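MODEL INPUT / OUTPUT PAIR
PAIR INDEX: 1
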Amino acid sequence: MIAIVILLVISITAVAWIVSSQWRLNRQRNIITSKPFPTQWRHILKKRFPYFKAMPTDLQLQLKKHIQIFINEKQFVGCDGFEINDEVKVTIAAQACLLLLNRKTNYYPKLKQILVYPSAFIVEKNRTDLAGVQSSQRNVLLGESWEYGKVVLSWNSTIEGAADPFDGSNVVIHEFAHQLDQEDGTANGAPPLRDITSYRSWSSTLGQEFKQLQYCAQQHIPSLFNYYGATNPAEFFAVISETFFERPVEFYQQHQQLYKELSQFYQLDPINWH
């Protein structure tokens, strides 16, 4: 009888701890955002993230709070001798948190670490063909998003993407769009939407536009979107997210329905910032 009571108490305690974990996390986040945004970080935003100046004041305030939480919760790791400092953290966090504005967010819950290389890095992948023959392939990358808690970035590419906020190319936005896509499993171009009724329109619109980009890539027809987006639906979502934030006017003019889908998903309309 005593053993049953002890087990019951332990079970209730465990459940209470799990249930209260989000409350404790939110409380910690409120403490973090109640502190003033560091002056040094404001200087870094001004130096490395010119996009910030174009944003409405309310979104600037949101972004700064998101940056504080992101930096507090994520681990930054320098690779190949690269040194992590506040400039690196703020520059990456600012771009990553653009994707979280105006949305209920848990700050990329699967993400634990951001690995930063000084420049492009090499990833070696093992492949097995249909005959069972294994081979090794070395790829030179600027960024990569892993399903199991990591994003890998090139610092050179990170600051280049931030320096020109209107060229439609941003490796941080690209990789963190993958993180959003991976929140409900494997990246497939369909991140968690606000309600189940949104998936039909999302699937129809993005499916048609994806096929159109594939056709443009095959026929070498100029497109607003990088041909890399024609690789698969996951890459398509990441590529159009870059364009949505950095070239919204052309995006809306040329792909109005697709723009509306992303605007509804991100709860933003960056046309007004440009």
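PAIR INDEX: 2
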Amino acid sequence: MDLASVKLKILVIGGGRMGNAFIEGLSHSAENQIHVVEPNSSVKAKLKIDFDVTVSNYDDPEKQMGEIIPLCEYVLLCVKPQVFNKIKKTLKNFLSDNQIVISIMAGISTDNLCEGLGIKNVIRVMPNTPGQIGKGISVWYKKNKIDFKFEEGINNILSALGEFEEVYEEEIIDKATAISGSGPGYIFYFMESMLKSCKEIGIDENLSKKLIIKTFLGSAELAKFSEKDFEELKKEVTSPNGTTEAGLKTMTENNLGNAIILGIKSAYKRARELNND
């Protein structure tokens, strides 16, 4: 493909898990023209096959960015926060205020982004992995007023992953990182523990997975449509001297609830630390 003859709308820098989630969600629309900068040759090849996206012929990420950034309106930074310091100088050389940068890097503030990239059109987004199937929830924040011409594009990009909410205090992004951003990991950890329990008490693995997945899905739907809070819903399934009470009692005695709270606080602390790494 002759890149000079194509007006690429979206550049995704980083084809890892979250970059892949964005690419998958965005590739469902034929109107989205997607280019990917990714240093790993095998990942590049897989993305090209799986999603029919444009991938630069250059192996050097800096040459990839130099080739394609001037042709894009929307630049998605889907790299780890630790990588930002390595690539920001190259990005700064090619970015302008005719573009907007959408960063999903945990902990990197809009001040650091604007300063490091030399532009004002920057937003921070915290998505989560269910966005791969359009069931994600993202929160986003803009420090500066965004040009009207970018608004529709931002909505289209974020809606590709599911629902999204704009927040008006940047610190909420770091807080949401610890809840919804990291949240799928906590849930899968709990599901993993339930699966181990099923094995120990002698339930077939296929049946176990179905029971666990459907229980999570059904409980989430119940919570979504019920007017009752989480505590009330928990009480409804907890009969005196019943099985749920016995299970919750043991979990409480082993400080499961406190461990969850401490884990989320640790995630939030780390999100804040990343801005200074």
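PAIR 2 NOTE: The radius of gyration is 21 Å.
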